[in-house]
Amino acid sequence: MSAAIGVGKEILSNCSKCKLILAHIIVTMKSATEPDKVQCKTCKSTQSFKDPSAKKKKASVDRVIKSAKRAGSKKSTETVGELWNKAINKMTGSSKEYSMKASFAMGDVIDHPTFGQGVVEKLIDDNKIEVLFQDDFRTLLHKK
Ligand SMILES: [Zn+2]
Fold it and tell me: Cα(46) to centroid of ligand 1, in Å?
């Protein structure tokens, strides 16, 4: 029984023309165990032997690396500055000048004389709001 591969024997190779793993006839050998040129039985083109199992293995390794990279780049925490940037970018309409006498609602953009622009993140109680400024969250009074 000759299980060994050799010239004239059939072997599965990844055909670069058919783009499929197909039966090929070995034309020349690189070594006793490694085919060099093979001929596709389907399209009859002669090409370098491409081990289909080797190619598959490499592709799956690439996929693992890629998914690991994606997981690693995912941010779990955002800085106050990043949150502020997002909130300001989402803003539609104009900002309101801050005054203790004014009334603010969730999502309102405030122009504060000291802290700059901020977004109302939370209504704490009737007279207090939590505002996200570029550097920090601050509690401000309103409806006084
Ligand atoms: Zn082919």
Answer: 9
Ligand 1 center from residue 50 Cα (angstroms): 12
Q: Give the lowest-confidence range in 67-71, 80-84, 135-139.
A: 67-71
Domains of the chain: 1-53 (2.30.30), 80-141 (no CATH)
State the Cα–Cα distance between residues 100 and 23, nearest whole angstrom: 82
Q: What is the whole-number distance in angstroms between the Cα of residue 21 and the centre of ligand 1?
A: 9
Quick one: pLDDT at residue 1? 47
Residues 6+ apart with CB under 8 A from 7: 26, 27, 28, 29
Range from 23-32, 81-90, 110-119, 121-130 carrying the lowest mean pLDDT:
81-90
What distance in angstroms lies between residue 41's CA and the mean position of ligand 1's atoms? 7
For residue 57, report the distance from its CA to the centre of ligand 1, in Å. Answer: 21
Token pair in block for residue 116? 């700059």
pTM of the model: 0.47
